[in-house]
Amino acid sequence: MMSENIRVRFAPSPTGPLHIGGVRTALFNYFFAKKHGGTFVLRIEDTDQNRYVEGAEDYIKNALDWCNIPFDEGPGKEGGFGPYRQSERKDLYQNFADQLIKNGHAYYAFDTPETLDFHRKDHEAKGKTFIYNWHNRLKLSNSLSLTAEEVQKKLDAEAPYVIRFKSPQDRELVLNDAVRGEIRIDSNILDDKILFKSDGMPTYHLANIVDDHLMQITHVIRGEEWLPSLALHHLLYEAFGWQKPVFAHLPLILKPTGKGKLSKRDADKGGFPIFPLSWETSKGYREAGYFPEAVVNFLAFLGWNPGTEQELFALDELTSAFSLERVNKSGARFDPEKTRWYNQQWLQRKSDAELAELFESVLSDKGFSSTEQDVGYVTTVVSLIKERASFVQDFWDLADFFFEAPTSYPEKAVKKQWKEDTPNILGKVGELLAGLDDFSTSHIEKTVKDWIGNQELSFGKVMPPLRLVIVGDMKGPDLFVIMELLGKEECVNRIHWAIQVL
Ligand code: GLU
User: Fold this and answer.
1) Best probe residue, ligand 1, of 208, 224, 247 (max atoms within 8 Å of C-beta)
2) What is the predicted pLDDT for the residue at 460?
3) Residue 248 phi/psi, 5° resolution?
4) Which of 220, 233, 367, 466 has the fewest Cβ atoms nearer than 10 Å?
5) Domains of the chain
């Protein structure tokens, strides 16, 4: 495989934003290409103009950029196999459809939508499904049932037609999939799929096969929802006499309950994003505060595993660890809790400086000026609280007291910590602190602890209420560390203010 020039493609239709399942398909293609020194192609499958959505192509490109998986060839990045938008390749498909008609693998069909509708409804009423294929095609209106003259007359009169693939009768097809192994299909169940429409546009099946061939795609890695098309694609390669690529169908991504395919509705209900980037009113993973490293990491584990206990993988590590052999057949359950865990893990891996920069933009949104957000100070704060955070947005709740004095105290904590003698005790602690010249963590700690010992007080009488007045809550890292960072004056003020209001 290494000697072959590996070429894979991600071939989305620009019908809306990418679902994370689509991002996973792109990722697996990217891993495979990069692992084998191959080429990752982006092809936009926009033959269905009715479903075309403005902005979707840009969205797809931005999503790949954000995930850090740039394509090597695609719209705007010529690589000798373009154009990469099917709408710009429109003129080349007709010849291929004609070629199939000439060699007897396809035929013109003139059935009107009304006739087909009639048959569909008629079958439905009898509890059956209407399939257009070998068992009824001679009773329908097409170039197999009509004489050559009749067909020519219709074509000359520009009667609307489609071109259908002539599915073979009584054949057992043996298909191969890199993930699922051998799949056997009885050709009698296949319908004669439309390859070309009278509006001059190919359908997905024809355009997809022709382009994969012309773009010299060696491996088709795509979602399981395309598995039902595999038999037709296999037959099309055969009909053209072209070498087939290797096919690999990735397992479905399942709902958090494990039953059924994950949908946008599940995401809305469960309060988690389904798109990598925001789209209209739906918040994306990026906007929800996820790091691209975390998204890439959790998506990689939806349907693949490295076969070891290791769960945290950077993009380049995934690339070298990836193999199609380790892609699972069975559906991968989506676990929103686990996605948050991945983000928490990736957050811990970020440097304090990088996180401080992100936090500073939160602080300026809250109206703090740049002097209040002294870089060194913010970086130290971040280093103290990040352990408890899964997202940068968690920082404010964990660290607000480093930036503003408490204005209220939770009732429950006050009830528990604020006893009759507390104002008196804390007043004395305030005096003690005010007298310190050295306001370093270790010095404050020693002074306060010695004083507690001398007064024969318990720690519980002093430390918890002290935390309550300094922090405004019972949370936060080591209190003496907090005090040093806040500085003497601020600590003394907070104590005095609390004594007044509580
Ligand atoms: N255009 C198809 C899609 O939207 C491509 C399927 C394939 O990869 O063959 O997913």
Assistant:
1) 208
2) 95
3) -140, 120
4) 367
5) 7-75+206-254 (3.40.50.620), 90-203 (3.90.800.10), 264-347 (1.10.1160.10), 350-402 (1.10.8), 411-501 (1.10.10.350)
Please report the atom of ligand 1 found closest to the CA of residue 208: 9
Closest ligand 1 atom to the C-alpha of 45? 1
Nearest of 398, 418, 408 to residue 347 by alpha carbon: 398
Pick the residue whose CA is nearest to atom 3 on ligand 1.
12
Q: Is 139 exposed, middle or buried (0-12, 13-18, 19+ CB in 10 A)?
A: exposed
Query: Whole-number mean pLDDT of the chain?
Result: 96
Q: What is the pLDDT of residues 10-36, one digit of tens each?
A: 999 999 999 999 999 999 999 999 999
Q: Which two tokens stand for residue 123?
A: 């079958």
Residue 202: strand pairing partners: 196
Residue 280: pLDDT over 70: yes
Q: Are 11 and 25 in contact (CB under 8 A)?
A: no
Q: Tell me the three state secondary structure of residue 8.
A: strand
